[in-house]
Amino acid sequence: MRDFEGYGRNPPDPRWPNGAKLALNFVINHEEGGEESFPDGDPRSENALTEGSTAPVKGRDLAAESMFQYGSRVGFWRLHRLFTERGLPCTVFAVARALERTPQAAAAMREAGWDVDGHGLRWEMHIGMEEAEERARIAEATAIITRMIGTPPLGWYTRYAPSLHTRRLLAEAGYLYDSDAYDDELPYWRDLRGTPRLILPYNLAHNDVRFQRTALTTGEEFFQYIKGAVELLLTEPKGRMLSVGLHNRIIAHPGRAAGLAKLLDWVATQPQVWVCRRGDIARHWIAHHAP
């Protein structure tokens, strides 16, 4: 059943650590190598969220393949440097096949102490999948991420559209929470067949996909856009959570990454902002806001 009111006029005080008013979570989407491609036996090349995504290419798109490879060959490492040089944590939404094909990146994630959530066996939507197939894909993705990172993923985010079974299957697979929701700015509990289920909402508004949809064109615009969101949330009563979505093949291009670097430097000067991993938020909510 859909809930149109949620917390309503009385959202809870999240009581973030050290008196922070905003839990700010940067999410790197690690997808390159998990997309549809001819070498993997698919009938077409994925070109979503690439610089040529409006090009009417049918069949194999070598340009799109190369743009995905930029994300893993160059983009990831630029983002890794931006965060580790500043000592800032982040979360990775990892497509399992992509992680398996980039063991150096997986090692860097482990060394940095980032948390790695599941983002599918491949970069694919689960809507319409048969339940048995989806269960098997979640199990295989979980096993790959656990092997590559050393610990099982706590959370999961499906590419845009989950199925009607996804949340239940994730709970059965042992996931602590999922982020397949866009309906709030705070975590919340939802009843799942009589058992409380933790949801950490995500959002696509504060996300570098805006570059691909021509809403943003420069790194400076990205900086100002996210900075404005943070400033507004700091003025609101109690506290909020903000997810900022990043992609190796989008924000990591130099002209855009300059804006991200500026944003990270500015965020570090804000004492009421708690820059954290997604798992940190989940553990805090469980400890302080029991269902």
From TrEMBL:
Residues 62-276 form the NodB homology domain. Residues 32-56 are annotated as: Disordered. Pfam families: Polysacc_deac_1. InterPro entries: Glyco_hydro/deAcase_b/a-brl, NODB_dom. It comes from the Bacteria. Coiled coil: none annotated. Is involved in generating a small heat-stable compound (Nod), an acylated oligomer of N-acetylglucosamine, that stimulates mitosis in various plant protoplasts. Belongs to the polysaccharide deacetylase family. This is Chitooligosaccharide deacetylase. It comes from Sediminicoccus rosea.
